[in-house]
Design goal:
By secondary structure, this protein is an alpha+beta fold. The two termini are 56 Å apart. The chain has eleven helices and 13 strands. It folds into three domains: 174 residues, no CATH class; 86 residues, Helix Hairpins (Orthogonal Bundle), CATH 1.10.287; 149 residues, 2-Layer Sandwich (Heat Shock Protein 90), CATH 3.30.565.10. Helices cover 55% and strands 18% of the residues.
Length: 458
């Protein structure tokens, strides 16, 4: 349970928020404390300087009559029980003192808080100033030293209470802010809990659920969009995998049923050696078809998992197309087709893999193209790309058919499934080879022509 609490994001946010708050409150408390102390010191200094001026005036007016001076000074200090005033001659003779204890300026301690002298009388702490007053030489008092102090006990009591209250307020405020921060973080992370709830309901059978993006907080919106995109890709991949499994079962079942049927019929009664040979040759064709299918599927699996390491070198596309033309020329002539090549193009790639991809496209064009037509292959070398197009006359294809041409086992005309030889994996293999080379392929149909466009990036 403690580990679970410490690993919670809301708890971590609350702790960080609380430490930040404590630091800010401490700084604020120190600043306020210093300001209050400075205010008291300024106030005390102003009051003491005022008393020094009063004592100077009284000294100047009554320096010849010490008894009247004492009376005036006592009257001036009425109501100021927190003040101490002491006047003495340079010889040490005390002229006036309102303190029950005689102060010795030499024993007064320098205060740590400013230009003050500090002393203690009857458990009271005083801060004061020492001022020397000079008179005319003809006067009875040529000079005098004035010591003025003020009781700071009340100030100290106030500051102690103030510090204590600041501490209480800081502790209570920190606890409240910690709880509020935890609640705010918990509330702010509720969209994450909703996202987790949606994710829990997602499985291979239920991939239609999506996270709500419009009302998602800004910080989580990119995550929600990426999560939805991932689900879209997964849904598409699972759909293709399901279709592939179904198509694979259908494709394999057909030759296996043929093999079983022919073998059962052959074994139903005794036959001559020629009949057995015909059955074996027929079975061999089916086995070859199964072998090609397994080989193509293995190639696709390796290509999609990056197991094919392309032997990259400079490939002359025109040269590769010429070699394929020599191979397919006789087959194209049977349908009255003409092979035509124009342009120049060089790419970095694996010659054998690219030759297989181009061979699949050319074979597909001959197999499904219209008789007595022209198959055009054009290479175009650009600054940053190399484009190769294969164009031939074809039956009309819908946009949906074009988008599925590179799916495994997909045929535009299901009725021709067994008429034409092949595994239905040629275009899928072509796309995988081009993906390995970082190229893209597009299929389009316009004006009775189907066009395959391959773009190689440099």
């Amino acid at each position: 349970m403690p580990n679970k609490l410490f690993n919670a994001i809301s708890f971590r946010i609350a702790i960080i928020f609380s430490f930040s708050t404590v630091l800010i409150l401490m700084i604020m408390g120190l600043v306020i404390h210093q300001l209050v102390m400075h205010h008291f010191e300024t106030q005390d200094r102003t009051q003491l300087e005022g008393k020094i001026q009063l004592v100077e005036n009284l000294l100047e007016q009554n320096y010849q009559n010490p008894s009247e001076l004492n009376v005036y000074l006592k009257d001036a200090l009425v109501g100021h029980h927190d003040l101490i005033v002491q006047i003495e001659r340079p010889t040490g003779q005390i002229i006036f003192s309102s303190s029950p204890t005689v102060l010795n300026s030499k024993t007064l301690v320098k205060s740590k808080h400013g230009p003050w002298l500090e002393w203690k009388v009857q458990n009271k702490i005083y801060h004061g100033l020492v001022y020397k007053k000079s008179f005319d030489q003809n006067t009875a008092i040529p000079s005098a030293q004035i010591i003025v102090g003020i009781d700071t006990s009340e100030h100290l009591h106030f500051l102690n209470d103030f510090r204590r209250q600041l501490l209480y307020i800081g502790v209570i405020g920190t606890i409240c802010l910690m709880l509020l921060g935890w609640v705010a973080a918990w509330r702010g992370l509720r969209p994450v809990q909703k996202m987790a709830k949606v994710a829990e309901g997602i499985s291979a059978q239920h991939l239609s659920e999506r996270l709500e993006v419009d009302n998602t907080p800004t910080e989580l919106r990119s995550l929600a969009i990426a999560f939805n995109d991932m689900l879209d890709r997964l849904e598409t991949a699972v759909g293709k995998l399901s279709d592939f499994s179904s198509d694979l079962a259908h494709e394999i079942r057909t030759p296996i049923n043929n093999l079983m049927t022919q073998t059962q019929v052959c074994l139903s009664r005794s036959r001559d050696i020629n009949t057995y040979q015909e059955v074996l040759f027929s079975n061999l064709e089916e086995f070859e078809r199964l072998a090609r299918m397994v080989s193509d599927m293995l190639f696709l699996a390796k290509a999609e998992h990056g197991l094919h390491r392309a032997n990259l070198q400079k490939v002359n596309l025109v040269k590769e197309v010429t070699v394929l033309f020599d191979f397919y020329d006789a087959i194209a002539a049977e349908k009255g087709m003409t092979l035509q090549q124009t342009g120049l193009g060089y790419v970095e790639g694996d010659p054998s893999m690219l030759r297989r991809a181009l061979s699949n496209l050319l074979s597909n064009a001959i197999k499904y193209g219209k008789s007595d037509s022209v198959i055009k292959i054009k290479c175009q070398q650009n600054i940053d790309t190399t484009v190769l197009t294969i164009q031939n006359e074809s039956s009309p294809l819908s946009q949906e058919q074009l988008s599925r041409l590179f799916d495994r086992f997909y045929r535009t005309d299901a009725s021709r499934q067994r008429v034409e030889e092949g595994t239905g994996l040629g275009l899928a293999i072509t796309k995988s080879i081009l993906d390995v080379h970082g190229a893209t392929i597009q299929a389009s149909y316009a004006e009775g022509q189907i066009i395959f466009k391959i773009i190689f990036k440099k």
